[in-house]
Structure of Class I SAM-dependent methyltransferase:
Amino acid sequence: MGIGLNWIEKLGMLDQGKLDGNVEWLIDAIKEDEKIFPVLIARIHERVNNRIELFNILAVGCYQYKQFDYVIPFLEEALKEDEFNKDALMNLGQILSEVGEQKLALSYVLKIRDKDQEVLSFINYLNESFENEDILEFEQNDVEFTGERLIINRHVKYQYPDVLEEHINRYKFACSHVKNKIVLDAACGAGYGSKMMSEAGATHVTGVDISEESLIHARKDYNSSNIKFSYGDVNKLPFKDSSFEVIVSFETIEHIRDGSHWIREATRLLKEDGLFLVSTPNRSITNPGTYFEEAPLNRHHCFEYNAIEFIGELTKEFDIVGIYGQSYVHDQNNASTTFLRTVRKLDINFKPTGKDSIHGADHDLIPLGLVKDMQPMYLVAVCRKKRK
């Protein structure tokens, strides 16, 4: 694919605000041949009137299509045209924030001259996010990310920002429940979550994992006077009954052959009225059409619950304090919904009124009770041990 008539036509249509298909076409061309990028920049400068707007559109498009290498270069081109352009500075700030560069994001957003309510709200969000800034600034570059145990380094920040945000947001949520508590971080992995809860005011955090390699890195990188990292299989942990006030178990239960066994073990380990914070993928989204007894697509998972099964399993031993969802998928964007509406001769273009009714970042934890016509990719439960 070269710089020919098609390029001129596409740029002309984009200059007129005709975005459908044209942004994706250009991004695919860059993806096919990276040498095209500087030529495209030159052509935009030569032929496009609304250059700043187009550079912003292409930057956002590259981010959405996961062509991260070109996001900041496009925004830099916009800022060369106008160093105080609000859209470019906001886009740059939001992207940097999502990969954990809050301080740098804030430095750009503060340059905006016309600070309307949207800008001021984002500045406030960035200031509040500094609570866990040290976690994101420290990088474990000597550990390989396999896709199963999250680590924090530059590669993960820029190549897997969604995965990073999902994990960090779950532990931020946990941090609001651990002040002055004795905490167990079950399947602690690289240890960043234990560190976050330690800094959030936990009296003591015990992080356990079955990976000795992960524990070596956790002790080296995230150790603290009120954290202890040790080997532990959640099927049978070497702790006395009623040892903990809070147990955090994120993305663990689906790795165990019998999830109900871990739930009972958590009950044994918790003090009276203790809290169990547990998350798991929602099979309805991650493995649609499969049954509980069938193997999930993720080869590391023994099974996956749907929402009803997850809640039902937990209520055997716990009282549910709250159920949250993370990374919601609109029913309207679900292939099975489209198919069934087609079969039933319902309007497949109909947009339910609740589609945009929830507010928050894509990977925030949002109570299921606030949501209609959407399904979460991940389920997060806060449970209290039942009194005997």
Notes: Confidence is low (pLDDT under 50) at residues 1-5. The chain has two domains: 5-133, 154-385.
